[in-house]
């Protein structure tokens, strides 16, 4: 997500929606206090969805009440006069709890985001300016979810597929904030589940580790872009801010009941075996097992990927470093196993898509 002007945002929305499939049966309510935004979105969506617009929260509530049987999805800006987007969506949730709600916001305040998730039954929030592919996926998934909830005959497999796609969508959108981390979360997840299977993690825990890997960096949504993409060493102050992302991740994940059991593993993936990590300086077996697995996978991918401040290291150098740090940074047993399966890790690094389909528990469940 690049820091660009609002006109690019509007052009991006136009490009996204213009590629969507025709779905005239669905009505979308768009709420924004900027008339130009409303008109552009209405023109862009014509022929694809039936569009209703409102320029503030109070007007939108009346429109929603008048069209309660037809609205499938709401896209609302956050910062608006009269009634902010989060307050409007909270009120809308009491009127139409099954309608999909998406919040557009220019603020990465973790409190605002968590409050919206908890109170508004929010499907997803999108930071402005947003990635075009992200919004396209969110709208599609939102309509899919509405159809799923509305249909009484859909089976559990369909729900799992939507959950899987939503998790993948959130993960991909997060990686898109920094061009150097494209695909990072998927690769970390892949290496994590390969390692987990190698140490015989029970089958019923593999899905938890997979979701943890995909969402391990979700707290970075609240980290300023300038820090995430800085081409050089972070200052002490910047590093303090960067180190808040695991706690931010836990705060977000804990607010979602289906995911609350994975929150500890996500929060502690930057802890060290010797107790010198963060955020809580946990040591040894006090660190959740899933976090110890993700820590090794995360470090390997960071070393073998090109970043804004350095070129990628070779597979061999990364493996040597993990071996050297066994017992200090990493769980020594897990680090040794990672070294032992390095040929599989290397192959997965070279063909991540192929290996992900092979190892993913979530993907297999929806086939």
Question: What do these coordinates show?
Answer:
- The chain is α/β, with parallel strands linked by helices.
- It folds into two domains: 6-154, Response regulator (Rossmann fold), CATH 3.40.50.2300; 167-365, Hypothetical protein af1432, CATH 1.10.3210.
- 56% of the residues lie in helices and 7% in strands.
- It contains 19 helices and five strands.
- The chain has helices spanning 6-18, 35-45, 57-66, 85-95, 110-120, 132-150, 156-175, 184-198, 203-215, 225-228, 236-242, 245-254, 263-267, 289-303, 315-324, 332-340, 342-350, 352-359, 361-365, and strands spanning 27-31, 50-54, 71-77, 100-105, 124-127.
- A five-stranded parallel sheet has the order 2-1-3-4-5, with helices on both faces.
- Strand 1, helix 2 and strand 2 (50-54) form a beta-alpha-beta unit.
- Helix 4 (85-95) runs parallel beside helix 5 (110-120), helix 8 runs antiparallel to helix 9 and helix 17 (342-350) crosses helix 18 (352-359).
- The longest helix is centred in the middle third of the chain and has 20 residues, at 156-175.
- It is elongated, with a radius of gyration of 22 Å.
- The model is unreliable at 1-24 and 152-156 (pLDDT under 50).
Strand order of the largest sheet: 2-1-3-4-5
Proportion in helices: 55-70%
Number of helices: 19
Q: Supply the CATH architecture of the largest domain.
A: Orthogonal Bundle
Oligomer: single chain
Could you give me the name of the CATH homologous superfamily of the largest domain? Hypothetical protein af1432
Most strands sheet = 5 strands, parallel
From the N-terminal CA to the C-terminal CA, the straight-line distance is 32 Å
The CATH class of the largest domain, by name, is Mainly Alpha
Order of helices and strands: HEHEHEHEHEHHHHHHHHHHHHHH
- What sort of overall outline do the alpha carbons produce when their principal axes are compared? elongated
CATH topology heading of the largest domain: Hypothetical protein af1432
Structural class: alpha/beta
* Alpha carbon gyration radius: 22 Å
Number of domains: 2
Average of pLDDT: 82
How many beta-strand elements?
A: 5
Poorly predicted sequence stretches spanning 5 or more consecutive residues: 1-24, 152-156
Query: DSSP strand (E) fraction?
Result: 5-15%
């Amino acid at each position: 997500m690049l820091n660009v002007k609002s006109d690019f945002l509007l052009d991006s929305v136009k490009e996204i929606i213009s590629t969507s499939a025709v779905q005239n049966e669905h009505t979308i309510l768009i709420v924004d206090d900027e008339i130009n935004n409303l008109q552009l979105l209405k023109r862009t969506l014509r022929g694809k969805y039936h569009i209703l617009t409102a320029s503030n929260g109070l007007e939108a509530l009346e429109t929603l009440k008048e069209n309660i049987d037809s609205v499938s999805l709401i896209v609302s800006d956050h910062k608006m006069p009269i009634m902010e987007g989060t307050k409007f969506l909270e009120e809308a949730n009491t009127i139409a709890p099954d309608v999909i709600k998406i919040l557009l916001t220019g603020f990465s305040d973790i409190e605002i985001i968590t409050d919206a998730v908890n109170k508004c039954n929010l499907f997803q929030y999108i930071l402005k300016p947003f990635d075009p592919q992200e919004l396209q996926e969110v709208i599609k998934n939102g309509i899919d979810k509405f159809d799923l909830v509305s249909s009484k005959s859909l089976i559990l497999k369909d729900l799992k597929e939507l959950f899987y796609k939503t998790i993948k969508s959130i993960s991909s959108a997060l990686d898109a904030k920094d061009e150097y981390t494209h695909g990072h979360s998927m690769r970390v997840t892949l290496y994590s589940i390969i390692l987990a299977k190698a140490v015989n993690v029970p089958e019923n825990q593999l899905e938890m580790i997979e979701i943890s890997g995909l969402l391990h960096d979700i707290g970075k949504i609240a980290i300023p872009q300038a820090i995430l993409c800085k081409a050089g060493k972070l200052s002490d102050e910047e590093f303090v801010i960067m180190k808040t992302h695991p706690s931010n991740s836990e705060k977000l994940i804990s607010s979602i009941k289906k995911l609350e059991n994975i929150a500890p593993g996500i929060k502690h993936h930057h802890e060290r075996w010797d107790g010198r990590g963060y955020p809580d300086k946990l040591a040894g077996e006090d660190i959740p097992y899933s976090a110890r697995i993700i820590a090794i996978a995360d470090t390997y991918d960071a070393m073998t990927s090109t970043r804004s401040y350095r070129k990628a290291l070779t597979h061999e150098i990364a493996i040597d470093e993990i071996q050297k740090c066994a017992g200090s940074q990493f769980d020594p047993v897990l680090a040794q196993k990672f070294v032992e399966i390095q040929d599989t890790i290397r192959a997965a690094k070279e063909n991540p898509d192929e290996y992900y389909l092979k190892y993913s528990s979530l993907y297999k469940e929806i086939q």
